[in-house]
Amino acid sequence: MFVKIGLQICYQNHPGLADADMFRKETQLAIEAEAMGYEFVGLVEHHFGDYAMCPDNAQVLAYIAAKTRTIKLMPAAFILPWNDPLRVVEKAILLDILSEGRVILGLGRGLSRREFEGFRTDMAESRERFDQAAKIVLDGVENGFVEADTPFYKQPRVEIRPRAEQSFKGRSYMVGMSPASVETAARLGIGCLKFSQGPWEQAMTEVNAYRDKYRDIHAQEAPPLLISDIVSCFPDERKAREYAVHYMGIYHQSVLSHYEMTGSHFKDMPSYASYAAGAEALKRDGAPKALEAYIEANLAGTPEQIIENLKQRATVIGDSDLSLNVTYGGMPYEDVWQQAKLFAEKVMPHVV
Question: Which sign does the torsion angle of CA 213, 105, 344, 251 carry?
Answer without folding.
Answer: negative
